Amino acid sequence: MWKKVGYMKERAILIIHGFGGNENEILYLHEHLRQNKMDSFWIQLTGHDGNKQSFSNATSDQWLADVDRKLEELEQEYTHITCIGFSMGGLLTIQVSERKSVDQLILCSTPIYLYNANVILQDIVQGLFYKKQEKLDYYFRSAKTASIRSCLQFLSLLKKTKKKLKRKTLTLSNKKILILQNRKDETTYYKSAYYLAKASNAQVSLKMYENGRHQLFLGENKNLAVEDIKKFILIN
User: Fold this and answer.
1) Residues facing 82 on adjacent strands
2) Is-contact 205 211, C-beta < 8 A?
3) How far apart are alpha carbons 48 and 7 in whole angstroms?
4) Residues 161, 191, 16, 186: is their CA dihedral positive or negative?
5) From CA 235, how far away is CA 223, in angstroms rounded?
6) Would you state the pLDDT for residue 135?
7) CB atoms within 10 A of CB 33
8) What pLDDT, on a 0 to 100 scale, did the predictor assign at position 40?
9) Quick one: 9 exposed, middle or buried, by C-beta within 10 A (0-12, 13-18, 19+)?
10) Tens digits of per-residue pLDDT, 131-158?
């Protein structure tokens, strides 16, 4: 689908999963792009192999190094790269956004403000009083995944990214950015999307989906999201 420039292909798409997650979070998107003959790739971040101890030992510097290495690999074959980050993957996308090859950034459910207390409270009430055990199970599973040490690594990356955005040290005027967010996201407070749009200092498109939860590519708005991503990549 992509034309070649000399011996180089035109565009690769790199998808980065979230904190404590894995490829299951983003495979729906990856497969949709592949089916549309786009050169889509994803990476597994250090410590995200299902082993809690290795996750606990992983650092945010390692996660960033994982992304840098993959980008360097893709840059050997492709002229332009679309970097798509889901949740914490969006923070990593911002960290690498000044690379010359990365001309499109897509930030999905990317946190600046954590947690939507109203949504979480509604879930707990439904779980306790309306026998919707799956609501409680979701939070129990999430709590078991991460150690205090891994949470501190995530918070360190979040702080570093906020600082980078606040200081206006990002040079993104020649980049194009798409921000996708579910309004009922329990983990990333939806106003994070507005913050990112305002702070990015770039050409930004923002899509706010009604309802939907944190797992954008596993929930009710997944088809809208993948179509919006496909259009953004092709038009820009």
Assistant:
1) 13, 104
2) no
3) 34
4) positive
5) 18
6) 66
7) 21
8) 98
9) middle
10) 677 767 776 677 677 788 999 999 999 9
| Strand pairing category for 4-5 and 8-16 | antiparallel
Q: Are 20 and 150 in contact (CB under 8 A)?
A: yes
CB 146 within 8 A of CB 20: yes
CA distance 180 to 5: 31
Three-class DSSP labels, the chain: CCCEECCEEEEEEEEECCCCCCHHHCHHHHHHHHHCCCCEEEECCCCCCCCHHHHHHCCHHHHHHHHHHHHHHHHCCEEEEEEEEECHHHHHHHHCCCCCCEEEEEEECCCCCECCHHHHHHHHHHHHHCCCHHHHHHHHHHHHHCCHHHHHHHHHHHHHHHHHHHCCCCCCCCCEEEEEEECCCCCECCHHHHHHHHHCCCEEEEEEECCCCCCCCCCCCHHHHHHHHHHHHHHC
Q: Tokens 């020649």: give the residue.
A: 174
pLDDT of residue 1: 45
pTM: 0.91
pLDDT of residue 195: 96
Q: Which residue numbers in the chain have pLDDT < 50?
A: 1-4
* pLDDT tens per residue, range 206-233: 999 998 999 999 999 999 999 999 999 9
